[in-house]
Structure to design on (163 residues):
């Protein structure tokens, strides 16, 4: 008895979605473009009792096409991470994570732009502190090699008047 239809990325084994069959079933197998695998899944295919919650299942498992089974994975470290089944670890393109980090950094910088205007009410010491903080923000990505995510960055501490 079929339990659900799973859509899996063929190259990575990442579970993209799950649906309960209603009406006409989709064509099972590899999609024409070779990107996805559409598969019927029965209860016995699902390895964990907690997996009655499909959001949990999608987040915590991937499909191993080499042995036709679902494999539990550790928590995904960032939005760009892909589970490497052969090596049992997450891999990602560092440039994509750096782009995310730069976007966060740019928002932090933008929130302090007002400190550089000539008509603000900051003292000279506060202006200097704000400039030092902004320089530290601009330099935060200089020493990053392959960060996992924005939480692995040593962000500079904002001056108390900006917090």
């Amino acid at each position: 008895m079929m339990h659900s239809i799973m859509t899996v990325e063929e190259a990575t084994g990442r579970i993209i979605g799950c649906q309960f069959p209603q009406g006409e079933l989709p064509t099972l197998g590899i999609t024409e473009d070779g990107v996805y695998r559409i598969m019927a899944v029965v209860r016995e295919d699902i390895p964990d009792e907690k997996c009655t919650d499909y959001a949990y299942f999608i987040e915590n498992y991937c499909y191993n096409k080499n042995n036709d089974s679902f494999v539990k994975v550790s928590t995904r470290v960032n939005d760009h991470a892909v589970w490497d089944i052969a090596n049992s670890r997450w891999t990602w393109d560092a440039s994509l994570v750096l782009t995310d980090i730069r976007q966060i950094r740019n928002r932090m910088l933008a929130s302090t732009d007002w400190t550089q205007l000539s008509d603000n009410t900051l003292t000279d010491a506060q202006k200097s502190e704000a400039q030092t903080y902004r320089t530290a923000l601009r330099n935060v990505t200089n020493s990053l090699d392959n960060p996992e995510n924005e939480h692995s960055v040593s962000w500079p501490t904002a001056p108390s008047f900006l917090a």
Summary: The chain has a mean pLDDT of 88. The chain has three helices and eight strands. Helices lie at 54-60, 94-110, 124-139. The longest strand covers residues 4-9.
